[in-house]
Structure formats: C-alpha cells, structure tokens
Amino acid sequence: DTAVSQTPKYLVTQMGNDKSIKCEQNLGHDTMYWYKQDSKKFLKIMFSYNNKELIINETVPNRFSPKSPDKAHLNLHINSLELGDSAVYFCASSQEKESPSSGNTIYFGEGSWLTVV
Amino acid sequence: AQKITQTQPGMFVQEKEAVTLDCTYDTSDQSYGLFWYKQPSSGEMIFLIYQGSYDEQNATEGRYSLNFQKARKSANLVISASQLGDSAMYFCAMREGWRYGNKLVFGAGTILRVKS
Fold first, then answer.
1. pLDDT > 70: what percent of chain B?
2. Residue A61 neighbours by CB under 8 Å, 6+ apart
3. A27, A110, B51, B82 — which has fewest CB within 10 A?
C-alpha cells in the first residue's frame, strides 16, 4: 500500500481552469503538507496542516486553497490556473513531535505534474 | 541568508567508489533535524537519512552515512560503493522548531551521475 498517495499524477489543463489535486496518507500521521517543485527543481513549502488546522501558509496566491476534511487527507484546489502554476506538486506527511530533533521524518507522495497550457 | 546550501550543482562518481555530497545549514536554534532525500528521474522523493541536532553519533543507513559537523554547520551525505541506480538528484533539508512551522527547508540539490 502506498503510504502517501496523490491523484492525479499528471494533469494538463488550460489557463483559467480550476483544478484539484487530492492527497491521502495511511501512515496515521497528524500533519500534512503541500510542496511545490519548480522547473529548476527547487522545492518550497506551500501549506501545512496539523490535525486539520492550518499551520503554515507561505506566500501563496489565494487562488490556491488547501482543504483538509480529516487528518488523513489534504487536497489542493487551484482556481484560475496560470502558466506559472506549471510545476510538480508534492503532498507529504509526518507525525509531529515536540522537538524537530526527534526524528519525525516527512514522507512524500509521488508528485503531481501540473502543466498549464 | 540561505538556510540550506548545497554548493555542488552536479557530481560524477565512478561506480563502486564513494562520493560525498556537501550540505551546510544556517540556524540559530539548538533543536533541529537534518534530512537527505533522493529524487530519481522518475520524480518521487525518497527519504534516505536523518540526523538530529542532539545526536552525538553520525547517522548511518546502509550505504548512506551523514557526516555531521555541528560546529561547522555541515551535514554531508556520504554514499559508499556507488551504484548506477544512485544516479539522481539529492536534496539536503533542515527542519527547525514550531516557530518556523516545523517545515522542511530544502537546498537547491545536487545531481549525481554514477559512471560505469
């Protein structure tokens, strides 16, 4: 069973459309994330949720809206898609502990390749 | 300032030899975690190894070891006995505390090519 699964894996869509990427984790983790990897392979966090509560919202356009119906799911909805939104979007999860030096590894999904044309 | 610096955009290594991928980090926190991930051409992010800031011994996982030098703020990845399948992009990442949202911050990555 895949620990962190995202769908769809590939998505080609036109500018101006609205699309969603779904993410589910079966690791029992309480924290989930969305990361964006740009064309230069740079990875940057977009959002994180802990027990369905938004923890991190990096300077992401408000066209991007995450939704966490429960702690095993974190979906990403994107409105009015633009060419610059083309990227690979990674979902990830971890079990949060009090200290970042306590070994709470973040596990990633396989990525969703979004191409806006 | 960059939180994570990987100074080697690309590296070559001969099959069966060892290779070191450099990573330096910047933090004023005492408690943090350091990670290495591998991203093959297929695109997935594979967790390799972790080092906590209070761990006194260097982390090891099979052929991977992390050369942790806290005073120098470096966390280099050492891959022993390189294999062709090790060809990939390698990312160093750091995690600080809750005041930073407990997020992973990544370096720019190093592309490793293993030659036969």
1. 95
2. none
3. A27
